[in-house]
Specification:
The complex is a heterodimer.
Chain A lengths: L1 H24 L8 H22 L5 H15 L2 H13 L3 H29 L1
Chain B lengths: L38 H7 L1 H24 L9 H23 L7 H13 L3 H12 L3 H43 L3 H4 L4
Helix pairs in contact in B: 2-4, 3-4, 3-6, 5-6
The chains are: A mainly alpha, B mainly alpha.
Amino acid sequence: MTVVLVLVGGAVGAPLRYLTDLFVQSRHDSVLPWGTVIVNVAGSLILGATASAVVNSGAHSWLLTLVGTGFCGALTTFSTFGFETVRLLEKGSWVEALLNVTLSLAAGMLAVLAGWALVSAMW
Amino acid sequence: MADASGDDDGTPMPWPAHLDLPVDSDVPEGARPVVHQGAAGALRERWDILLAIAAGGALGSLARWAVSRGWDHTARQMPWSTWVENVTGAFALGLLMVLIVDLWPRTRYLRPFLGVGLLGGYTTFSTYMLDTRLLLAAGEVPMAFVYLFGTLLTGLLAVWIGMMSARGVVSAAAQRARGSGRRSGSGPKGRAGR
């Protein structure tokens, strides 16, 4: 059962990351990989909220397997974040690379904290 | 592509030979304009690509789940499993992207299935953030910072090592191709291959 939840979550999360990236990248011409930043921050928010719901608010743990391990795990990506940063560095776009790292980590941390706090405050 | 290195003197390819490698590994540059038709258009035109990504994402997530399950950690311990998943996935994506762009540019499903799906699903940014938050909440502040910046630095290094390894393979292959081209006396135009 757990395996199915992980598979389903992953099968939805990964294509959604691709579609978000397509949509975002076609609507700006900045060097920063905004598509990846957005999915990573959104996924961190959702995972923070889901983990909080299970730990603090008594939601069933299958929710964390489906939404957390499956969906958020596949929606967000560390490999692409790393690859994009290294490519920016190679191109000599040091400022953009630093901005990408700072923005992703800072917004990602804020998002996971906000998601967690929001759910434990509401329930 | 390998021709960008210039002379046939067998020197390794310099950096600029690879500047056509995209920054965004998920969405190829040429794929972008189609999206102006909207998400429905992308779904209609690229349902096969989306299926490949979904299959890869499901399998990558399962692999991540399996590694994490076999290597559990409490809120006060270093999340080694997430670190290993992210760093090995980052290395593999660096390797894969160079190989796809330089050696197998014509494949349709390789990048969506392996790069976007499998490795994207296998690595995770959200758990990396949640792990850090849990360490902070448990009062393990120094460990949280070591984990946060340690994952970042080793992950970037892993991508770079992956790319360098693949470039070694690619330039060795190009050198072999050049060598055989010279022996057959076909000259520069004769090795156009594609």
